[in-house]
Write a structure and sequence with these properties.
The structure holds 2 protein chains of 2 kinds. Chain A is an all-alpha fold. Helices cover 67% and strands 2% of the residues of chain A. Chain A has a two-stranded antiparallel ribbon. A two-stranded antiparallel ribbon of chain A has the order 3-4. By secondary structure, chain B is an alpha+beta fold. Helix content of chain B is 59%, strand content 11%. Chain B is elongated. Chains A and B meet through helix 1, helix 4, helix 5, helix 6 and helix 11 of A and helix 1, helix 5, helix 6, helix 7 and helix 9 of B.
Chain lengths: 387, 384
Amino acid sequence: MSIGKGGGERIEWRAYLFVLPNFLGFALFVGLPVLASLALAFHDWDILTPPRWAGLANFQQLLGDGAFWKYLWNTLFLMSAIPISMALALALALLLNQALPARAVFRTILFLPSIASGIALYIAWKQFFHKDFGFLGRMLPAGVPIPLILWLEGLALCLGVALLAFLAARLWLDWRAPGRDLAAGRFLAAGVVGWCVLSLVLGALLWLHPGLAAWRAQLGGTAGASGWLNDPWLAKPAIMLLILWTTMGGYSMVLYLAALQNIDPALYEAAAIDGASPWQRFRYITWPLLTPTTFFIFVTSLIAGFQGGFEYGYIMTEGGPYSPGLPWTPWAGENLGETTTLSYYIYTNAYEDLKMGYASAVAWVLFLLVLGVTLLVWKYGGKKVEY
Amino acid sequence: MIPGPASHCWSLRLFWLGLAGAVAVVMLLPFVWVLSASLKPEAVLKVRDSWVETWVPGRDRVTVRLGEERIEARRLGRTDAGQEEVELLEPHPAAAETDAAGAAGAATGLEPMPAGTRLAVDPTAIEVAWEPDFAWENYGIAWRAVHLGRAYANSLFVGILVTLGQVLLCSLAAFAFARLRFPGRDQLFFAYLATMMIPAAVWMVPLYAMFAQGPLALNEGLGTTLFTDRLYLFQHWEVGRALGIDSYAALILPGLFSAYGTFMLRQFFMGLPRDLEDAARIDGCGLFGIYWHIALPLSRPALAALGIFTFINNWKSFMWPLIVSQSESMRTLPVMLAYFQGEYNTEYNLLMAGTLLAMAPAIVVFLMGQRQFIAGIRMGALKG
């Protein structure tokens, strides 16, 4: 980012007057609260009585807080919709980049969900998943086989592990052998192969081993017969479906489309003369030229993804399906927290349980996570970006 | 997927068109469902097997066969004798002309009956048939049921002020960042960019505390109750408090300052030609004059884009308004809808009518300013 060329020759002191209103507002409504939040993280405060110094107690509590780790996992799980959403956005942008009649109409329709998204739409989606009159809920009268869900979740897990392995290898190479190239595609392939092997081995073991009969009975059933959002197995996939629907035609698609339209057609003509196949044209022209866009979308989606989950959690599931249990058991009606994300956890801590100090501690950990991951991606992803 | 130059093969083009059409259907289907559910006359949606009856708003019309005629009726329940008790909704005979009625009564051996007559009939005489019926009155009912009017007014008022304020404040700062040189400029701008990464959850807790406790402290310090009193316009309309929880100040002030808006406008201002600015300077135009008479008019598309963007985002914003509005009269539309869902969670038709009413303005603003909006997205991302 070059800032120098924008300025005049002389130093203009009156410039501060232009920035001042905005800066004061920022200082008062962002800067001050952020610092106060950092201070609060080391206190216990129920807003009614004066804050009490707690030292590192909030952070110690957080490390041992099973709920925190579970909600962090939920957040990451829902974020696995990001790459799928990006792939769909790219596919849609490629589709709209064809010589389509009424392209503007299609673009408008695709963008509608992300404009209308918000409380109103979440209320509507909650009804879509209802087992009786929601059109999505009705699609599954008999439910989804649990093995299928496990199998698909396994794919997400393997790809996630592959991504982590790639980042770890990248870090290690940077430290020991700077300058070495590392192919992300191989890690991806390893993830897919690992998923196939894992599902075969685990599947065979589970189905053939006599000692695992109890597990087999539990995992052999179906989920979702009582509606998607009421089911601990299907609540998260349901929310992911909603995320995909709202985001795939939205900002990322528009950005991809803009980037596609900026590509010089002469490149494709030259490639066609050389006899490049459509796939080769995509792989060696389109994809590399789209890298900056992909990178931008990925980073902004990551930042948003870590913070997401409050609105649909609040409206659609109250943080997770409630355990159906049996009416006389102590765990009946307990919130299973399957769709509680970190931002929802912060909300309930701060405004329902009035644990402002602990909420601030969780918020700061979330902030550091966002910062860390963004910087990591920036450092190791930004390198391959061709501007 | 073949990127690049348009294909000239018509069958391929037809295929792309079909694919795009299918995607468009997927995107629109939920909206159609909401529309359909909002027009249904039944409060509790019924499970229906027929595809048409599921999607087209309609109701079950119950008729009783009395002699030759079918009379619309309402079921009341079974009698002990195994008969069905019904209440006629129209007079029998349906054609209520007296002379014809007498003739019909004579023909079937039944006395003429006015609407509202209750009688027990054989279950086989009752017939239930579905017919389309659009309950447009649902929108009016939903509007009145939870004071959506006030919520609409709140959302509009807050949205317009936030939009105007943000465009003004961001453009002022962006002008300085893009066109002027001053010590600390680049560091300050970088700090602005960095704030975009701070999760809202970090600043919301202390900000809430600030708005909750601040007015109390001010009251105590100045010896008044002014800052927590509820205010009334023309001694009639409640307009919340002056400051703090349940005030328009709490809803509007934090939204006025945006790092994203500053960033986007700065990108645009940097691209403006310098010649005009120099000419204006030679003509004796001051700094503010250059900003007001040159920079702003030249960047109308960017300002419009930021405006539309801000308005739509503000229309959807939920967490902060939820936290700072406690009394019903200060709720914005999304907050009101969330309460609506809690209260009317069995009357789905009203719920869907309410959600449709809430979505409509954002969609209209988007459709009207679509070109600027999409240009704005590109502007903001161009040099990320």
